[in-house]
Design brief:
Layout lengths: L1 E4 L4 E4 L2 H7 L8 E5 L2 E10 L2 E10 L4 H16 L8 E5 L6 E5 L6 H6 L10 H19 L5 E2 L8 E3 L5 E3 L6 E2 L2 E2 L14 H4 L1 E2 L1 H17 L11 H11 L2 H4 L2 H4 L4 H14 L10 H12 L17 H4 L17 H15 L1
Parallel strand pairs: 2-6
Antiparallel strand pairs: 1-2, 3-4, 4-5, 5-7, 6-7, 8-11, 9-10, 12-13
Helix pairs in contact: 2-13, 4-6, 4-11, 6-10, 10-11
Amino acid sequence: MLRVEGNDNAIIFYEREDIVKATANFDKANIIGEGAQGTVYKATLYVDGIATTVAVKRCKEIDENRKTEFLQELVILCRVSHPNIVKLLGCCLQLEAPVLVYEFARNGTLQHLLHGRPRRHPAVSLATRLRIAVESSRALAHLHNPPHQILHGDVKPANILLGDGWVVKVSDFGCSTIDDSTQVVPKGTMGYLDPEFLYDFQLTKLNDVYSFGVLLIELLTGKKPLVKERKNLTAMLHVSLGNGTLDELLDTDIVGEGSMGVIHQAVELASRCIAIPGETRPTMQQVAEELWRLSEQVPERAPPPEDLEGRGFMDTVTTLSYGYTTGESETTGFYGLESNAALSIEYAR
């Protein structure tokens, strides 16, 4: 096991045997997330001599083009330390494809909380939704502020993990860049992508603000950004604001709480986040401060929804999103990649 110190985080290069043992040789019974780009396993590894539950992500094989993204992921997460950003504990490069080790977020994703929970479960209160919005916006503001200047590039509920007490852990930096960077092809997720980004593929902080605005609307309405009949959520919001039917668009679970003034202010903030042109949008720091002010007006009188751990967690959570993901490609040898990764982490200092 090799430990490499970054600015804020120590990244551990695990041995192949450690990962194989922790996952019981990648036993299917330990899978907590699976998709076309990789598989996530619940595992137990020793971190600083303490047995710790972690999420082990086994990526698909990568080629030279994906190698740069993998190294950038290490650089970014070495630079960042924040309670609302998922922590990369380490990696293993001695397998056919990279394995990444993250802190374990046992309550799945915001995507699952909003759209995957059975209706019989308790409603998610306005206070909980605002707290999630506050913590997510604070994480993004931290990324945007010097000396980090990191642009996330794919803000969406599926990339908002929920840990103990439903604390937010922003994840998935596969589309991220360090400082403004012109991109050849669009990255991100349709429905959350800023239309202005599609003009020149120049990722900026304001693109993240737009995506967060869509996420905030989703939190308040309970609706996905792309809906049936070729309508999208942002267009529906503009129409409802124009004809006075906003309350009909809102999630019925929060309409009856008696805090309509706060909800309307949150919607107004979301509408400013998705404003065109982008120069008129608030910064993520301003968004975080305003959301905090609103959340203070709606104290959380009841505990968050019951934690998923211990009551059919494996059956409940179908997809978790932990950091970097890769597409299918040919196998890459681990020796050169491990050396480059160590150098990249050193550069991040």
